[in-house]
Amino acid sequence: MTAEQPSLAQGDDLTADTWGDFVYRLRHDCEGKGIEDHYTSDAIFVVQAKRLIFGIDLDYTDKKAVICEESHWLSPAEYWDDLDDDGKAELLNKAEEEHERPFLELDEHWQWDILGELEEHSVVGWDEKWEYVNSHFTKDAAEAFIRHKQHDYRDGIRIYVESQYHAWEFNTIKQAILDGRIGLLEQSKQ
Q: Is the confidence at residue 189, as pLDDT, over 60?
C-alpha cells in the first residue's frame, strides 16, 4: 500500500480497486508471508495506547517519576534536560550543598532524593498499562491509523496482534472474503 494508492486502510471509499487491495492485504496477513510476523492466521490487529499510572507506593516498584504540576519525568536526566538555566543552577547548588558534587555526577538515588525535596515536586512510583483503542483486519490499516492519530497519544501507541482463534463469526466471515464467497457487488449506474 502506498500513500498515493487509494485504500480502505486510509479511509478511502469502497470501490473495486480498494476492495481488491483490502483482500490482497488480508490474504497477506492471514494466509501469506505476514503470518511470519505474528504467528497466527487468526489475527486481528489491535491498536493500544500506553497509559502511565502514577502514585504507586515506592515500596512496590522501582520505577520512579518526578511530578510537578501537570508534567512528569521518568528519570532525573530527563528532568534535567527540560530545565532552563536557572533550574539547572538551583539543582547544581543543592547537589553541591548536600553532596559536594554536581547533580549529574550523583548516584541516581541521591538525584531522586534532591528532586523529591524541591518545592511543588513529588517523586512517586509509576507503572504502565496498554488500553484498547480500536481493531483492524490488516496490519496496514492499524499502521495507517497510528500514522494519522499518534499525535493524540503522548505516552505511546502500538499494534498488538490478538489471536481470534475462537472468534467463529469473525473467522468464518474473514475466510468467506478470502475464498471469494463474500465480495463487492457493483451497483449498476442509472
A: no
